[in-house]
Write a structure and sequence with these properties.
The complex is a heterodimer of chains A (about 160) and B (about 290). Helices cover about 35% and strands about 15% of the residues of chain A. The termini of chain A are far apart. Chain B folds into 3 domains: about 45 residues, Uridine Diphospho-n-acetylenolpyruvylglucosamine Reductase, domain 2; about 120 residues, Uridine Diphospho-n-acetylenolpyruvylglucosamine Reductase, domain 3, CATH 3.30.465; about 110 residues, Enolase-like, domain 1, CATH 3.30.390. Classes of the chains: A alpha+beta (about 160), B alpha+beta (about 290). At the A-B interface, strand 4 and helix 3 of A face helix 2, strand 3 and helix 7 of B.
């Protein structure tokens, strides 16, 4: 069967790709588009490693078909930093050492950015619930949560 | 990855979706995909045709009026929970919706998917039943309305016939001095499947006693079930201990759960009673505050 041609916007750039009907957006990001920042974990929506933002909403890209992206707006980890300038979330992940193997990190950062956009001053409990769909098997979460809460504080200062 | 490739279609009106679903037995509705794509990955195979219904404006529309809510079948859970009017009018439905999966999953998951997947443990189903929600179904012979409680026939089985899909839900406006609540028990705090769920809706009379009630249990029978005897026990009361005890006993008696790794039969029956009383108290307090 002929491949589908999809036109979409990824991190602000108009992008075109070919896919099969059952390819996930994750498959296309990591394969033909070579944007390997988005990670593949479970492929069943349980782990959060493949989190992206689709039309403003945080979603697992393993549970989005690539063909659905036609005309939509996709944001991935590659578009989070402003060139070489890291965001507060990214910087705090580094400063707290909030990662070990790093597979969960892009998903955590995308999700944390969305959390702080919606709730600039989350409690620890709110942050933990919001990020409950991002699994990390290395850190025990504590450094991640501290990094997110400190990033929230930095962002509030920057915007004050 | 299978060698066969699926077709992908994204109709922009209900008629187009019905035509695709009617023409091809192997066509599947793709709404949020949080069950369909997972089942595919777990070995169910890819459908011949994905019918992505999210470009049909009616399936994404939210209309709130004096008669209640009419909401497109493919509105994602996150959008439902963010809607302050929905949260304030049907807090039980909103809290059930907010319990489904993770933040990411809620960005995709829909009420129609939760209903059509027909899991006995679906969180939104008991809450929607408690509020008298109706599913509007479109198909080759037109539209029909089926109340949510009559929609599921058994695990994985629904009233949908070939060519049919759920296009929207209707929830009647809550009567004055009425409110709903939903509680579920899981062994952890997030990201799990209900061991027991309980949805309760109560309406108070002028004197503040319960004039009418609905009690619905999830995950303790092949389908979510109305517990008429528990509702009867609440009616006429102000949730005195005797009424709560009778409602809990009725829920324990109505529950016919299975033993599995998430809970034993005895435990689930006990919890069905506990959640009935707790959800009733929350619904009662909310109704009093209105």
């Amino acid at each position: 069967m002929a491949k589908l041609r999809v036109e979409t916007t990824i991190n602000g750039e108009e992008t075109e790709f070919l896919c099969s009907g059952q390819d996930s957006l994750l498959d296309v990001l990591r394969g033909p588009l070579a944007m390997t920042g988005t990670k593949e974990g479970c492929t069943t929506g349980d782990c959060g490693a493949c989190s992206i933002v689709l039309d403003g909403r945080l979603v697992p890209s393993c549970l989005v078909l690539a063909a659905e992206a036609e005309g939509r707006v996709v944001e991935t980890i590659e578009g989070v930093a402003d060139g070489q300038k890291l965001t507060a979330v990214q910087q705090q992940f580094l400063e707290h050492g909030a990662l070990q193997c790093g597979i969960c990190t892009p998903g955590f950062i995308i999700a944390a950015e969305k959390l702080l956009e919606k709730n600039p001053d989350p409690t620890e409990e709110e942050a933990r619930y919001y990020l409950a769909g991002n699994l990390c098997r290395c850190t025990g979460y504590d450094k991640i949560i501290r990094a997110v809460l400190d990033a929230a504080a930095v962002r509030r200062e920057e915007r004050a | 990855m299978t060698l066969e490739t699926s077709r992908f279609e994204s109709p922009t009106d209900v008629e187009g979706a019905v035509a695709l679903l009617a023409a091809e037995g192997g066509a599947k509705v793709l709404s949020g995909g949080t069950d369909l794509l997972v089942q595919m990955r777990l070995g169910a195979g890819a459908p011949q045709v994905f019918v992505d219904v999210k470009r049909i404006p009616r399936l994404m529309a939210v209309r709130l009026g004096s008669e209640g809510l009419t909401i497109g079948a493919s509105v994602p859970a996150a959008e439902i929970f963010e809607n302050e009017s929905i949260r304030s009018l049907w807090p039980g439905v909103a809290e059930a919706t907010d319990l489904i999966g993770s933040t990411q999953v809620q960005g995709r998951a829909t009420w129609s998917g939760n209903l059509c997947n027909a899991s006995p443990a679906a969180d939104s189903v008991p809450a929607l039943m408690a509020c008298g929600a109706v599913a509007v179904i479109a198909g080759p012979s037109g539209e029909r309305r089926v109340s949510v409680d009559a929609f599921i026939k058994g695990p994985g089985k629904t009233v949908l016939r070939r060519g049919e899909l759920v296009v929207e839900f209707e929830i009647p406006a809550p009567p004055p001095r009425s409110a709903d609540a939903y509680l579920r028990l899981i062994p952890r705090t997030e990201m799990d499947i209900a061991v027991v769920g309980a949805g309760v809706q109560v309406e108070l009379d002028d004197g503040g006693a319960i004039a009418s009630a609905r009690v619905v249990l999830g995950a303790v029978a092949p389908t979510a079930l109305f517990v008429e005897a528990a509702a009867s026990a609440l009616i006429g009361s102000r949730l005195e201990d005797a009424a709560l005890d009778a409602a809990a006993a009725a829920s324990r008696a109505a529950a016919t759960p299975i033993d599995d790794r998430r809970g034993t039969i005895a435990y689930r029956k006990k919890i069905a009673g506990v959640l009935t009383t707790r959800a009733a108290k929350i619904a009662f307090e909310r109704a009093q505050a209105r």
